[in-house]
Design a protein that fits this description.
By secondary structure, the chain is of the alpha/beta class. The protein folds into 2 domains: 1-31; 34-300, Phosphatidylinositol (PI) phosphodiesterase (TIM Barrel). The chain has helices at 2-29, 53-62, 115-118, 144-157, 183-197, 210-219, 235-242, 258-266, 279-288; strands spanning 37-40, 66-73, 79-81, 164-169, 203-207, 224-229, 248-251, 270-271, 292-295. α6 links the parallel β5 (203-207) and β6 (224-229).
């Protein structure tokens, strides 16, 4: 009986140490993030064409800590910035100068185009109707590698503190092989760019598609992960679905309540809601104790 009790005690100690180490690892990964993370959504979509180098520059000038952006994959394997895996009618202009229509947008599949072909479409001259303050300018969807190079050069030139990159993988189980590669290949392409540029310690990988986060957690455990959610299942249920504890829990801002903030912090997970575009709500969420906010208007910070 004594041997059995001693064995049980050893098992409990090992499990406890493992859980403590995982918790410590998570805190270590996010230790360099600011106490309150000011994130510019798609750069700063409310002020500049989304997911463009110009939007990133503007967000940096405003003073964000983190540049939030979206990644998709082209036919020739380039990682480029785009919220949709196609050219959206709300922002895109065709090579002939006419606007992309809602009936044809999904046929303009980026995964079916080479990077060179994507550069024939403009995404800045047709101002997004939902953002009247957005500056009108010629722009194309840039490669992630070029965005990183441009941003790193810009902050060095201005003598600013390095920023973080919050990169969302735009994929879904329903559209594997149609609008994007399967999760393993998607993550491999993305990480090739991140590793080549040597910015992994300043990158957050976020997604609604938990499969990509699972690949990241398995193959690249040092990377910061953020679980994007838009339903009210709660962090405990989402952790079950993920199979591991994310470093950041990123819910739709209307879901956030003080109880959710406390639960995240009890789990030693940072909470970072999206997308908050008015000052009173930003202040309300800050008072609840959130660890950061994603906004189309980072000037509101």
């Amino acid at each position: 009986m004594r041997d059995v009790l001693e064995l049980a005690l050893i098992v409990l100690l090992v499990v406890s140490c493992h859980a403590t180490r995982k918790s410590t690892d998570s805190l270590t990964k996010t230790s360099d993030l600011p106490a309150f993370d000011k994130e510019g959504h798609r750069g700063c979509r409310g002020l500049m064409p989304e997911n463009t180098v110009a939007a990133m520059y503007k967000a940096i000038d405003i003073g964000v800590n983190t540049l939030e952006m979206d990644a998709v994959i082209t036919k020739d394997g380039e990682v480029i910035l785009s919220h949709e895996p196609f050219f959206s009618a709300s922002i895109a202009t065709k090579p002939d100068g006419s606007r992309v229509t809602s009936t044809e947008e999904r046929s303009l599949n980026i995964f079916g185009m080479t990077y060179e072909e994507t550069q024939r479409y403009d995404v800045g001259l047709a101002v997004n109707p939902g953002f009247k303050d957005q500056q009108k300018m010629a722009a194309t969807k840039p490669r992630l590698a070029d965005v990183i190079d441009s941003v790193e050069t810009y902050i060095k030139k201005k003598g600013l503190k390095p920023v973080f990159y919050n990169i969302e993988t735009k994929c879904s189980p329903k559209t594997d092989g149609q609008y994007h590669p399967a999760p393993d290949e998607f993550v491999t392409k993305l990480m090739e760019v991140i590793n080549k540029k040597g910015i992994g310690a300043r990158v957050i990988i976020q997604s609604f598609d938990f499969r990509t986060l699972q690949v990241i957690n398995s193959k690249y455990p040092s990377m910061i992960t953020a679980a994007l959610v838009a339903d009210a299942k709660g962090i405990a249920e989402h952790i079950k679905l993920l199979g591991f504890k994310p470093d950041i829990y990123s819910p739709l801002y209307t879901l956030v309540k003080p109880e959710m903030v406390k639960e995240c912090h009890d789990q030693q997970v940072r909470i970072l809601p999206w997308t908050v575009n008015d000052k009173p709500t930003i202040e309300k969420l800050k008072a609840m104790g959130v660890d950061g906010i994603i906004s189309d208007y980072p000037n509101l910070f």
